[in-house]
Design goal:
With 230 residues, the chain is an all-alpha fold. The chain has 12 helices and no strands.
Length: 230
């Protein structure tokens, strides 16, 4: 009887431990395989580091070498997230002017705007980018000029993943597209979903804007080729 009782106790304990272990596995099982540094190139790791350090010259150098402005780190963090969190305003400006996306989210749900929330200058900068995109969608050229003169990066993607040029192209605001291109807007910039101003203008049947964008793309390509050939 003692032996039977002992066996029953041992069996219960083993089953209990198995149940706890199984429950723990279910609770902690990741929804996706985590990334690690081995999946990032040396250039990408360096980009995140210099962005966090506010080394604007180094960030520019890596961008020129082809590192994607919206590349993702191990936590789905981007260069602009690193710069914004550290309060590096000039680096944030540079990244925005190269098409950094304010709609990106880390694995924990944090965005560029929440990460930069403790730095008033950066908060104001993000608000101006959003205002610029909204003005472009409405064709408010006076406001657009004022915002750009204040130093608002013309190529930034707002919290919805849209740029001033993609909004103007989609809405058929020809004069606004002209103005933005004159102010340095990248004719080939992409929304967060990958759509370009040209594709948007074509889909909405805005032939004048299509022509403007095609000319701007050709001009930029020629300029780039000439620079490379030097």
């Amino acid at each position: 009887m003692f032996r039977s009782f002992t066996l029953l106790v041992i069996t219960a304990v083993v089953l209990g431990l198995a149940g706890c272990q199984k429950g723990t596995e279910v609770a902690t099982r990741p929804t996706a395989a985590p990334r690690n540094n081995a999946q990032l190139t040396r250039a990408q790791i360096a980009m995140l580091e210099v962005a966090a350090a506010g080394d604007t010259a180094a960030v520019k150098s890596w961008l020129e070498k082809g590192v994607d402005v919206n590349m993702r780190g191990n936590d789905n963090n981007t260069p602009i997230m690193e710069a914004a969190y550290a309060g590096k305003t000039e680096t944030v400006k540079l990244l925005l002017d190269h098409g950094a996306d304010l709609s990106a989210k880390k694995n924990d749900g944090e965005t560029v705007t929440t990460l930069g929330g403790g730095h008033p200058e950066i908060v104001a900068l993000f608000k101006n980018v959003s205002a610029l995109v909204a003005a472009a969608g409405k064709g408010e050229n006076k406001l657009i000029s004022e915002l750009i003169e204040k130093g608002t990066p013309v190529n930034g993607l707002d919290a919805n993943g849209q740029s001033a040029l993609t909004e103007a192209s989609w809405n058929g605001n020809t004069a606004t597209v002209k103005l933005l291109l004159e102010k340095g807007a990248d004719p080939a910039i992409k929304k967060s979903d990958g759509q370009t101003p040209l594709a948007l203008a074509q889909s909405q049947k805005h032939p004048e804007i299509v022509t403007l964008l095609e000319q701007a793309i050709t001009k930029r390509s020629q300029a780039s080729s000439a620079e490379t050939g030097k």
